[in-house]
Amino acid sequence: MPYKITDPVTSEAQIRAVVDGIHVAQRHKVIDHIDQHCANWIAHSTFLVMSTVDAQGNIDASPKGDPAGFVKVLDEKTLAIPDRPGNHLFMGFGNILETGRIGLVFFVPNRNEVVRVNGSAQVARDLPLRESMAIKARVPDFAIVVRVEEAFFHCGKAVLRSGLWSPEKAGPTDTLPTYAQAIHDQGQLDAVDVSLEAVEKRLKHNDENRLYDE
């Protein structure tokens, strides 16, 4: 039976009764453009999480990663994100086409803080833009163009608590399923005569040969 909440919070006033007060630095840190500090951070970022939402309110969060500088700052109000070969589900694209809303969280290795950007987005095929983001002569098929409405730095407490950049402190992972095991079992692929070995072979090929090229 699904868990049932016994003490729900239904208003911001209930939250503020427990945790009140916002430091002036936090209250005024949100800006409506990419300034030099955000641009410098984005230029060093190798990984981001992209959140989108469809017309029914269903949310998707997708990781994006590449060498530093993969997200282009086109101007103070515009970013461009290349689309690389992935799972071909295009959930984020579908959401953008429906609502045009997007949220981004930019990570820089060995830095605890992140930069967050919120705004609107479109999927574009502008060839000069896509060519500017080619890697190993592979021009991305699409670019996500983001119109910036909010940009701000977020403190490093979450990364510090997680020990994200301290792998020596991480727990064992030997009890975790492999990616192949998880999607094979969840998709019940035995029922359609797709073996675990076949999935493992395909995923190995993808990791070794399809980072940028088909």
Shape: globular
Taking the sheet with the most strands, its summary is: 7 strands, antiparallel
Helical run tally: 8
Strand order of the largest sheet: 2-1-5-6-7-4-3
Percent in helix? 25-40%
Radius of gyration over all CA atoms, rounded = 20 Å
Determine the mean pLDDT: 96
Cα end-to-end separation: 44 Å
Strand tally is 7
Residues in β-strands, percent: 15-25%
Structural class: alpha+beta
Residue windows where pLDDT falls under 50 for at least 5 positions: none
What is the N-to-C order of secondary-structure elements (H for helix, E for strand)? HHHEEEEHEEHEHHH
Which key features would you list for this structure?
single chain, seven-stranded antiparallel sheet, 214 residues, alpha+beta, globular
List strands and helices in order, with pairings.
Layout: H1 12-18, H2 24-27, H3 36-44, E1 47-53, E2 59-65, E3 72-75, E4 78-82, H4 91-99, E5 101-107, E6 114-124, H5 127-131, E7 143-154, H6 157-162, H7 179-186, H8 196-209
Antiparallel strand pairs: 1-2, 1-5, 3-4, 4-7, 5-6, 6-7
Helix pairs in contact: 7-8
Please tell me about this protein's structure.
There is one protein chain. By secondary structure, the chain is of the alpha+beta class. The chain has a seven-stranded antiparallel sheet with strand order 2-1-5-6-7-4-3, covered by helices on one side. The radius of gyration is 20 Å and the shape is globular. α7 packs across α8. The chain contains eight helices and seven strands, in the order αααββββαββαβααα. The protein starts with 11 loop residues before the first helix and ends in a 5-residue tail after the last helix. A hairpin with a 2-residue loop joins β3 and β4.
